[in-house]
Amino acid sequence: MSRKVLDRLLKRFGEAVIEVHDQFGDETAVVVPERWKEAALFLRDDTQCAMDHFVDLTAVDYLGRQEPRFEVVLHVRSMEKLHRFRLKTRVDGEHPRVDSLCEVWRGADWFERECYDLFGVEFDGHPNLKRILMYEEFEGHPLRKDYAARRAQPLVPYREEALDKLPPFDFTEGMPFGRQTHAQLKREREDGPPQNVLGFEEDN
Amino acid sequence: MGEVKKSSVVLEGTERGFATTRFEDLLNWSRKYSLFQYPFVTACCAMEFMALASPRFDMARFGAEAPRFSPRQSDLLWVVGTISQRQAPILKTIYEQMADPKYVLAFGTCASCGGFYDNYTTLPGIDKVVPVDVYVPGCPPRPESVIDGLLLLQDKIQRGDRSPGVVKPRMDPVQKVEQLVELRRPERRS
After folding, report:
1. Whole-number Å distance between alpha carbons of B111 and B88
2. Which of B128, B169, B173 is opposite residue A158, by nearest beta carbon?
3. What is the CATH topology of the domain spanning A3-124?
4. For the complex shown, is ipTM > 0.85?
5. Structure confidence by residue, pLDDT tens digits, A6-24
6. Structural domains of chain B in order of their starting residue, each with its CATH number
7. Nearest to B135, CA basis, from B157, B156, B109, B162
8. Any A CB within 8 A of B173 CB
9. What is the number of CB-based contacts under 8 A between chain A and chain B?
10. Nearest chain A Cα to B116, which residue?
11. Residue A79 and residue A76: Cα distance in Å, rounded?
12. Measured between CB atoms, does A161 come within 8 Å of chain B?
């Protein structure tokens, strides 16, 4: 359905389109980051495309699987022509930069802030680029693949007598000895892991 | 439910005249039936909280009737729902603004331990920030179990116990070492 849009985009941008594919009937084009905003403007203003509905903007982190590392994804739709289109670009580095689309679609404002907050992609020309979900004191960008999954950054220090969260269930759950106690955890933290608690003989 | 001490019984139903008691017990007795609550409601557990407050389950039967949306007028802080790291300072401020004696009830799994939100954004249990008196598990808990938790809290108030709640395991493995030894399977390889 959006084949026509893709054809027009290819005709207009040619070499700047790195890759095209389609999935479930929706066409996707990957453009070079330098012409990101220009391509968005074309999608909006071209009479055959007429993408007047901004749907979504997000990013994907392909750490170790693809170079460049980040892919910024834009979903747009035309209320007039009733077709959808997906535009992507690829950026790299610790502070990846790409042009802001706020001037093209005003709705992009908060989406770009979210993208900056969670992935650290910086949008040139954004009027108010700051964190939107996390707090200002937060370090790093939590949805990057190199952010440690368990790393929390509490705003208030935990109480001294606060107890650690019990570990998730394992194969002993449901057995009478299956749940660790907070006392056990505390002992383990001080004395190291327990030696052969269950009393099973080692399999060699 | 803890055992009610003899001295804490103020008046039996059929007794007439006057009864003697200790002042502390009388004070605790009146406290436990007049809990003004501050609902700190953040997530889906609120639905169960509404069910609890509405006529079918009717929390008012236990004296915990009046919600006060000012921490300075309330005795019981209900933490209903997930608390994110960003909300933790607010929760702590609310708790500090409450006048003593004050009690905290963790409503549901998320408030008790963070639930399955084991990540950068969620506080792993409100006991990391404020002391908790009663934990009510469940996702969300049935109103009956919350009422049970409320009765536990009333019991605790009657005892004059101000220590934070502790989650007891079903069986402490350390105290039952002899049972663990029975599980040894020496003839496995035969």
Report:
1. 11
2. B128
3. Beta Polymerase; domain 2 (3.30.460)
4. no
5. 999 999 998 899 999 888 8
6. 22-189 (3.40.50.12280)
7. B109
8. yes
9. 91
10. A168
11. 10
12. yes
